[in-house]
Amino acid sequence: MRILFITSNRLGDAVLSTGLLAHLVERHPGAALTIACGPLPAPLFRAVPGLERLIPLPKRSFARHWIALWAACVGTRWDLVVDLRNSAVGRLVPARRRAFHARAGRPMHKVEEIGAVLGLSPPPSPRLWLDAAAGAEADRLLGGLGSPFLAIGPTANWLGKEWPADRFARLARRLTDPDGLLPGAPVAVFAAPPERERARPVIEALGNRALDLTGRTDPMAAAACLARAALYVGNDSGLMHIAAAVGTPTLGLFGPGYPETYGPWGPRARAVTGTVPRDELLRRLEADRDARDLMDGISVERVEDAARALVPEVAAG
């Protein structure tokens, strides 16, 4: 059986689609999978069982990336095409069966929306397949950390989604102080390469407590590192979804975003919102696209309380 799975070019959306992919792997053992996705999330799919071909799909002008994907796939008779991009490619390649993503008719989480593509309710949770190379890279990057560590993601792809750096630093210190939730724990700081400078104030404020992993990991290596963390706290980002998908207790911080649609998914994941109503945040955003006060309603105490509630809850099963 040959399956073509077309998923997102965005990291977070690609991670959220992995539950549906895992369902296909389990439902069709021995199937040969071809996965098309954006270049950034592509490493996350390299260890998927049954993977025959991984096609990174960088955007090209005049939609030439879709033409290239069609050319790569049209020569195969597919038993199943699952197209989460709702593209022409999914319709134009030969296939016995096709399934397309469509916007939900009612509000639901993205994971539920993706599961509905194959009529799955409840939807399968996102999951990642970590290979030996990712484990070895995590060993190298973490430097043999023997104790549980706190992982934080203080950046995002948009400034308006970033909790203030000084609050991240204060939170990390409080969680790792002698009377904190993770006393004496190191703090691993993650950020994408273009966001390294925005994470620097947090690293500098933490001093020798911080392990700087900013810009040093691809998504698969980051996943292998995060799988070993005792807790992850970060802004609404692809990294947040990776942490939740590998089963790490995860807190996602949301200002003007929509946690009911894009919050971290899973029994060990929670979204933390602030005290400022969303309508007010959206009004500020409309007045100033570069507004930097959209996350100010989330206090350090609010996030610390959420962490203290989440981690014992996870330990209790």
Describe the structure in your own words.
With 317 residues, the chain is of the alpha/beta class. The protein has two domains: 2-118, Rossmann fold (3-Layer(aba) Sandwich), CATH 3.40.50.2000; 132-315, Rossmann fold (3-Layer(aba) Sandwich). The protein has helices spanning 11-16, 18-27, 64-73, 89-92, 110-115, 132-142, 165-176, 196-206, 219-226, 238-245, 259-262, 278-287, 300-315, and strands at residues 2-6, 32-37, 51-56, 80-83, 98-100, 150-153, 187-189, 210-212, 231-235, 250-254, 269-273. A six-stranded parallel sheet has the order 8-7-6-9-10-11, with helices on both faces. Strands 3-2-1-4-5 form a five-stranded parallel sheet. The radius of gyration is 20 Å and the shape is globular. The two termini are 38 Å apart. Keywords: Glycosyltransferase, Plasmid, Transferase. InterPro entries: Glyco_trans_9, LPS_LOS_Heptosyltrfase. GO terms for molecular function: ADP-heptose-lipopolysaccharide heptosyltransferase activity.
